[in-house]
Amino acid sequence: MSAEPTPGPTPDADAAQPFVMARRAARMNPSIIREILKLTQRPGVISLAGGLPAAELFPVTVLREAADRVLRDTPHQALQYAPSEGHDPLREWVAAHLAAKGLPVSASQVLITTGSQQGLDLVGKVLIDAGSAVAVESPTYLGALQAFAPYEPRLVELKGDARGPLPGALAAARGARFAYLLPNYQNPGGGCVPAARRLALADAARDAGVPLVEDDPYGELWYDEPPPPPLAGRWPEGTVLLGSFSKVLVPGLRLGYVVAPPALGARLLQAKQACDLHTPGFNQRLVHEVIRTGFLDEHLPVVRARYRERRDAMQRALAAHLGAGWRWATPQGGMFFWLEGPPGLDTMESLARAVAQGVAYVPGIAFYPDADHAPRNRLRLSFVTVDPSAIEQGVARLAEALALGAGDRPAPVRVAPAATL
Amino acid sequence: MSAEPTPGPTPDADAAQPFVMARRAARMNPSIIREILKLTQRPGVISLAGGLPAAELFPVTVLREAADRVLRDTPHQALQYAPSEGHDPLREWVAAHLAAKGLPVSASQVLITTGSQQGLDLVGKVLIDAGSAVAVESPTYLGALQAFAPYEPRLVELKGDARGPLPGALAAARGARFAYLLPNYQNPGGGCVPAARRLALADAARDAGVPLVEDDPYGELWYDEPPPPPLAGRWPEGTVLLGSFSKVLVPGLRLGYVVAPPALGARLLQAKQACDLHTPGFNQRLVHEVIRTGFLDEHLPVVRARYRERRDAMQRALAAHLGAGWRWATPQGGMFFWLEGPPGLDTMESLARAVAQGVAYVPGIAFYPDADHAPRNRLRLSFVTVDPSAIEQGVARLAEALALGAGDRPAPVRVAPAATL
Asked: pTM of the prediction?
């Protein structure tokens, strides 16, 4: 049997090796964040870059005891191959948790994923054809852009205002395979879409026939009041909801979930099975063992209090150190400040200087679907990873590195809370 | 901004929901094995179907103590986000382990994956364009067919004989993106490719410019003598090697690895990052903590002895219960017997009857790239999951269910050991 070469390959730079890369490989680029994280491992660098939860809040003792119980009581089940859908009691917990937020879903609709990043990959795999339109906010979560890119979508930017994407933008996205939204404390923008806008968005999406992929990693990290109910509640048969245990418990166990209408859920399950058979059963049982008796009810207030304190510390530091021409909103939840610098600033160009001064951030262009036409003067800072004194010192170094230091410090311009800049 | 619909979608059966599936979704089918595994959960059914390692051999105490040490000594590192490449000491362990088998690789070439199933998905994602040729054995591992299918390859069957694929088949596959091979105790065939054939295959692949994807989940499960060195040693710059901890330790932690030439490895890493950011760090540290002091050197002989005993039990049971017209080879390693029944038998059709009689197997057509033209009289039995008395009873039920029971039992025809039927 002979096999003819097919058109469209991307020849690799290294001619000595015989691999012909798939066309989609050209869409995959090393994550800017990942490269930055490497830099920030240098001793003495204060990283305000990666979205790393505060490790000192990890409930280590609780996890350690739970791990021991799981391996004592159900070792064979925890360590054997397991169903692709996930551990049923954990699926039931997720369904009950969502029901308590006003979103009645069946446990059979819950697919446990290897982090919610896998949920994004599965959604891309099942819903995106090469050239099909996918609507995204601009800026949006870099990891989602990376997950979708290999499936070669044509990205359509959703216009927005301070309250989030505009309902009219969804009408204009008619024909898109889905619109990807982060209504709770968007990454990187930090905004939280108000209740009325959520209803309008869901209605506009339904009217336009544009399914919604609603990503909610940060919803539990609210510092003033809980966010409004998810869009999924308004249009359940047209919405895929993604959630995660990374931000509420620990990220290193890689546990997330997807909730989808049944017909789509069946496809996501098949894709999941082809990706990694199933999410580690031990990890699922471990997390369920920790949360089943209400542990998050005591743990989350501790996390919120600590992160609120750090948000306030960063707010103070930014106000103290950044000069004229800087704009930002105070986030009401989540993990990030999203800053707009003076027009001449290029945050990509300045990064090396900042790291040399001992502070790291993520340049804004990393978050734009069209990086070539993105503003160059934005950057993202995480306020959750380091403590208030390191935040103060990091922001001071940042101000100095970006040449907007002490001598040049009028009151900053702040826009209204919860804006998507 | 408007988004026009793109051609080629697969409309979903449920018209009430707005999701348009990607064309590739039509290639994803529910796993036959998975559906069978559900049936086998009925009480009283002896499952010889799934390739589940024997849970009673899981080193539970060792894992429990190691989990406790990891969470005592490095909890923050184990539970935080971690590098996409994997935990460096585990990568170094894999490199040293392969070097000891005569395959000198650098730890920097080792990418830790969420089970070796993820390695297959990554290889497909990076190397397969829609319509590009991929060469596979026929029959071959069902999970590989499922992993590759969403990338829409044109599958080319590699002809083989009792010693494995023919070198000439690789020459004929010129232009294929890669050839996927399982040289050690193939799933489902059970064959082990002899050393001379390995060299000839690697040379033929190099000459034809067809990269090799060498999957080795079972290499440590040998019952008579170790398998010959991997093909990767003969053509390292043209071979991707996949390995797994599922069969040597436990499957439920989902740990595997891919070893690739550097240029390809960089692409696989990018794809990995988009899939799930990284494999759970806790799981990587846990397994490394168990194996770093040589635990597998004592554990594997125990596993081999137990599985050898079960292989022999199944061999005896098959010889005792199966009648004329059955053919099989005694596997020298791995987990499976691959049986050819009498010409009129349809193992797919007979499955429900077998399950009703209290025994489950996997119908052979599940393993063929072209199921429509596959022989219907093959089936796969796992001999590792249940104990010898259950094996004896299961095979007796099988013989009865397939209507080839006690009254009709001449000596079976056996072909040479290690054949790929």
From this structure: 0.92
